[in-house]
Amino acid sequence: MADPKGFMSTPRQEWPRRPVVERVRDWDEVYVPGALLPIVSAQANRCMDCGVPFCHDACPLGNLIPEWNDLVARSDWRAASERLHATNNFPEFTGRLCPAPCEAGCVLAINQPAVTIKNVEWAIAERAWEEGFVPPRPPDRLSGKTVAVIGSGPTGLAAAQQLTRAGHTVAVYEKDDRIGGLMRYGIPEFKMEKRFLDRRLEQMRAEGTRFRTSTAVGRDVPAPELRSRYDAVVIATGATAWRELAVPGRELAGVHQAMEYLPPANRVCAGDLEANPLSAAGRHVVIVGGGDTGADCLGTAVREGAASVTQLDIYARPGGERDAEAEPWPTYPKLYRLSGAHEEAGELRTAPAADADARLFAASTLRFTGDDRGRVKELHLVEVDERRQPVAGTERVLPADLVLLALGFSGPDRADGLIDQLGLETEPRGTLARDGEFATNVPGVFAAGDAARGQSLIVWAIAEGRAVAAAVDRYLMGESWLEAPISPHDRPMAV
């Protein structure tokens, strides 16, 4: 490491966010432009270059974090970019969207604030693009083998890039009109501007990856026909079957799934729509669900000018410090975290009745009531105990003109017919079944990402894409030099 005492002399300093009153007026990313680079080398210098770096194990990609921290501390950006891209196809995505389990596994985090690994990663990725350190890497020769990748989220894109670079002819099929999956239409612009996604796609096109948009396999192209045209198929459609809320009043107008609300908001930013047909402007919004998707809805509703926004989380409010007995280091602890959207809602007081920022914790929805036109008007809730059982006498009513359900996803959507047409076996929870080589029960068809693993983090999605690419390469060629960072059965570190 560059400075053996860096972690003792330099306090943790994160990339500052723009003032709330400024950033809620636009859709730009929330951080102060140019404010990270002046501090990032000193922050990288806090890395202790541990003999056993648990940040490696906490990250499914096995990112070489101490190595590129040291290189950034020494201002060797080219070498840092090489080490970062050696394990991660898309660090500009994870640097923005990953919740950084690597920081929870940082040895320094045992008794001090962790190294700002995520910020360092972002800085390396952006410096690499600015300096031209990430040119297209087309293969030296083609294998003569063809692969279809169904789905263009982080898993599909990582698999496609790896297989293209290995010399195979790869086509990515996407049912939407643009490539990117939930990164395109699920992630709001203020969390990741889509120009960064487009930049990486241009690199992939230059390498030889082909993209087929507005093509739903199973509906627009019969799945057996597609299978017959390619030597191998990778299914990376994600887990897009959203979970429902079976309570009285669910049928009322104005109660929508989060993924019915977020995509049109992103289309407004892309210039496809003048306004979101489900716009929160002037409405009392209640978001049911305490996860990242709920926070994305929160930040979007604030920017659209909602009259109020409240987010319900069925779990009790977590503490601010790790519980060493319940969630020992280096597992990822459940802590009270303040995302950019929650910071905005708290400062603007969008939910006067909330426990903190815009959230009501330990809150469960009982029913919705509507007006005489059949539109939702109120949400009835109750407090719950640690077993999620209602607490008597705690019922409350919130005004609700728009209710957004952000309850997560259960597995791949079967509506297009892909799963049934190929006769793919599924697990009891609805995900695609696969063996230790990512292979399904259909020869030559592989499954990866959330479609097989279940809803997970972007860093796991990319790791799945890299690993399934290695498996497909072995299937086609008998051996592979591609890295496989995880197996289908690996799971995050947990108690």
Structural commentary:
- The protein has 495 residues and is an alpha/beta fold.
- The strands form four sheets. Strands 3-2-1-4-15 form a five-stranded parallel β-sheet, sandwiched between helices. Strands 6-13-7-8-9 form a five-stranded parallel β-sheet.
- Helix 3 (37-44) crosses helix 9 (117-131) and helix 6 crosses helix 9.
- The chain has three domains: 5-131, Fumarate Reductase Iron-sulfur Protein, Chain B, domain 2; 146-240 and 410-477, FAD/NAD(P)-binding domain; 245-407, FAD/NAD(P)-binding domain.
- The two termini are 31 Å apart.
- The chain has helices spanning 6-9, 20-23, 37-44, 54-58, 65-73, 77-85, 91-97, 101-104, 117-131, 154-165, 182-185, 194-207, 223-229, 258-270, 292-304, 340-348, 418-422, 450-453, 458-477; strands spanning 146-150, 169-173, 210-212, 232-235, 241-242, 255-257, 284-288, 308-313, 359-361, 363-370, 376-383, 396-399, 402-405, 409-411, 445-447.
CATH architecture grouping of the largest domain: 3-Layer(bba) Sandwich
Annotation, overall tally of beta strands: 15
Task: Let me know the CATH homologous superfamily of the largest domain.
Answer: FAD/NAD(P)-binding domain
Global outline: globular
Span between termini: 31 Å
Largest beta-sheet characterization: 5 strands, parallel
Indicate the proportion of strand residues. 5-15%
* Whole-number tally of structural domains: 3
- Helix content bin: 25-40%
Q: What is the average of the pLDDT values?
A: 96
InterPro entries: 4Fe4S_Fe-S-bd (IPR017896), DPD_II (IPR028261), FAD/NAD-bd_sf (IPR036188), FAD/NAD-binding_dom (IPR023753), Glut_synth_ssu1 (IPR006005), Glutamate_Synthase (IPR051394), Helical_ferredxn (IPR009051)
Keywords: Amino-acid biosynthesis, Glutamate biosynthesis, Iron, Iron-sulfur, Metal-binding, Oxidoreductase
Pathway: Amino-acid biosynthesis
Protein name: Glutamate synthase subunit beta
